[in-house]
Amino acid sequence: MLPSPLHLFLAAQAFCFSNARGRCFSPGFRALIKWYGLRIKAQVLDRQRFKRLRLGWEAH
Amino acid sequence: MPDKLRLKSWQTIQHWLQPRLVKNQVQVVSLDIFDTLLARMDLPENIQRQVCQQLAGKVLHATTEQVWQARQCAEKTLRQQTLNQGLDHECRFSELVPLWIKIWVGYEDPALISTAIELELKAESTALYIKRGVLDFLQWLQGFNIKVLAISDMYLDGKYLHALLDQLNLTEYFAAIYVSSDSGLGKYSGRLFQHIQSTQELEYKSWVHMGDNPHSDRLKPCELGIQGIWLDEYAEQRRIKHQRINAQMATQGGIWQGQHFFNQINEVLHSKPAQKQPLAEYFNYGRDVLGVAFSSFMLGLLERLEQTKPDCVFFIARDGFLFQQMLQQSTHHYEHRYLYLSRQVIAAASVANGLTLQQAQVAFYNPKQQGLSSIFKVYSLPAEMLKSFAQQYGFTDLTTPIQDWNDQRLVDWLADEQVQAIIRQTGLKHKIALHEYLSQQGFFNYQRVAMVDIGWNGTLQHFLSKTFGTDEDYPEVLGFYFALVPKLHGDFYQHNQAEGIIHDSRRANDCERVVAEFEEVFEQGARALHGSTIGYSQSTAGEWLPVLKPDTAPDREAELRANPYVEQLQAGILCHWQQFQMVQQLTGVTSSDILPYVYGVLERAVVYPTPQEVQLLRRLVHTEDFGHDHVLTLAERSFQWRDVLNLKRFWQYLQIEAWRYAVFSHLPTGIANFALRIAYLHAVKK
Fold first, then answer.
1. Minimum-distance CB partner of A3 among B256, B595, B604
2. Nearest to B241 by CA among A26, A44, A2
3. Short-list B484, B499, B514, B681, CA closest to B597
4. Fewest CB within a 10 Å sphere: which of B108, B147, B374, B641?
5. B334 with B310: CB under 8 angstroms?
6. Which pTM was predicted?
7. Which of B232, B604, B681 is the closest to A56 by Cβ?
8. Minimal C-alpha gap between A54 and chain B (Å)
9. Residue B301 in contact with residue B323, Cβ under 8 Å?
10. How many CB atoms within 10 Å of residue B295?
11. A24 contacts in B (CB within 8 Å)?
């Protein structure tokens, strides 16, 4: 039910395309990129994950 | 050495254990506690830092960083000492705190020591929750004649950990609880298992241990001959990873703090088994959508009450009902009352000095207004007595809408002294009854009172002030509204204290406006189940009692049909509020920290609803308490392709539809709603 930052960023663009004031719920483009960066980093460079994969493989 | 097992869920563990338990091959089952049985809604470091922050607040000129550094230093010293004694790298909380306080303030302050222990335990108990599937597993284990142990590598003493598990009603499942801090021996060295084996005289081969750490919970027990099981839950790994990223992003400000905060709440709320009772979808909507809005409002309200310190908080019927429930369920103690008021009874009393043109026009704000008939209903005026005068000024049909709000017939009718005399006489009767009721509720006994209501025009505060404002005993009234759009009453709110906490049109922030785009759902979510107040009557004992709209009125009948849905919505909201308060106390966030994200949640719910949500809310009805007995149906129709043929008519329909964005909810992608949002933001009159 909670909207993701990407969803909020997209929804906030409606305020950009209109003459409305206040884009307070937009996460901001840079922060959004940083958020994705952290997620990718956590996925790719996760030492714990490699360790778990190794230990999982050892178990077999 | 037993096989090093890696199982991915409680169900697979159960499946693996079942035949072995039946054959009595397993006599002892031990479980790790943290991240296996229990999860934390925040990172342990953040919880400890929050404790340091709260502790720093107790000492003049102390900073969180100082307290944190002192703690780190004490922990390092103690761990080194235990290591030097030939034990494992462990530290005990009851020894840590005195040293921590000594390093920080220079001596062992008993008051600070007990405060630190109290704060840490409170923070831990708030942050911990039982993971999904755990209770079912423990209950299943209870069905076998085996010994179940809980084992943890943890800095808290056994007695504190026991108390924490007790709060979660988990102790009954365990024969004993072992903690590394008590013995100075950890699971990661295998020595804690040896210690337990000698204490309990257990056999390694009939012992199964399980936990989330492949080293401490699988490798080390297996080396001793215990069957170690590594519980490797993908969802749990993902949860911890996201929690870490959210915590890191929360330092960015904007929506991120709110995002982290509400994710923490959601984590706990969704760890509980899903509701299976009828109308659970309303409970879920209340918990996940309305709960976010109303809990944030309540936090803002409590902050303002703390600043303004009113003598009494009056919750106004009917939408103040839920807010009063929420205040009662909080740790804040304010004198509070529930007032049976409605716009109808206050409007009726406000004409004790006569009816002005401006007041008469208030009746025309309803899109379904019926001219003079609406004026009679809004101000509870005797239609029969005034009818003949109306006919004299050219009103043939009293129910014909008056489109020109300055209609000359209306002006002349109001200027008639006989008309005004009847209005004054009726108004005075209502004013006396209202005054008696308010006096009985103690309204005039206070110097400063707060009025809490959902909004939107602040009509009650306006009419109350207009009716009794010049009386000597009229208190200073502070109006706190969920949303305030004070357009109806001229410049009244420039001179009177009133604030919309979630939305205040005077702040000119278009993001906030989203609550006004579908105000009916918030009113329905907050309203009491009783009918609206239509007057007051005096009992034989002399007590003034509210007279409520009869259940036979057409709009009340519709309300009664919708009451079960409203009840479920409110149960969900209160469930969210309970968790909201716990996380708020743990993290110390303020309403301004989380509001940007709350607007995002509301934008999603109002502008981009799912078809299922529209289906749910369609069953609610909206009624007015302003003398009308109309029923406003919500999200009555959906967009059809033939609407393209008459775009002008369709646009007119969208402008009067209470929830215009629901019209497109069945179309995929949300692009139609996005386009409508842009169009409406262009068109809306600010």
1. B604
2. A44
3. B514
4. B641
5. yes
6. 0.88
7. B232
8. 11
9. yes
10. 26
11. 254, 509, 511-512, 595-596, 599
Q: Are B256 and B248 in contact (CB under 8 A)?
A: no
Three-state DSSP at B482 gives strand
What is the residue-wise DSSP string for A1-52? Answer: -PPPHHHHHHHHHHHHSSS----TT---HHHHHHHHHHHHHHHHS-HHHHHH
Does the beta carbon of A44 lie under 8 angstroms from any beta carbon of chain B?
A: no
Q: From CA B261, how far away is CA B41, in angstroms rounded?
A: 10
Could you give the 3-state DSSP secondary structure of residue B21? helix
- CA R_g for chain B: 32
Rounded Cα distance, B159 and B147, in Å: 20
Q: What are the phi and psi torsion angles at B178 (to 5°)?
A: -115, 135
What is the distance between the alpha carbons of residues B671 and B639, in angstroms, rounded to a whole number? 14
State which H helix or E strand residue B283 sits in.
helix B280-285
Give the number of other Cβ atoms within 10 Å of residue B181's Cβ: 25
Question: How far, in Å, CA of B373 to CA of B615, rounded?
Answer: 34
Q: B409: burial class by Cβ within 10 Å (0-12, 13-18, 19+)?
A: middle
CA dist., res. B317 & res. B339, Å (int): 6
Residues B415, B355: Cα–Cα separation, whole Å: 9
Report how far residue B682's alpha carbon sits from residue B676's, in angstroms, rounded to the nearest whole number: 10
Lookup: tokens for B456: 């939107």
Cα gap B78→B99, rounded to integer Å: 9
CA–CA distance, A5 with B379 (Å, rounded to integer): 48
B255 closest CB neighbour out of A18, A25, A46: A25
- Sequence letter at residue B573: I
SS (H, E, C) B310-339: CCEEEEECCCHHHHHHHHHCCCCCCCEEEE
* Average pLDDT of adjacent 10-residue blocks, chain B of 686 residues: 85 95 94 95 91 89 92 94 90 94 91 94 94 94 94 94 95 95 93 94 94 92 94 90 93 92 93 78 94 97 95 93 95 93 87 88 78 86 86 83 84 89 92 92 93 88 86 91 82 76 89 89 92 90 90 86 93 96 92 95 94 88 63 76 87 84 89 90 72
Q: Which residues have a Cβ under 8 Å from the Cβ of B349 and sit 6 or more positions away?
A: B427, B430, B431, B433, B434, B435, B463, B467
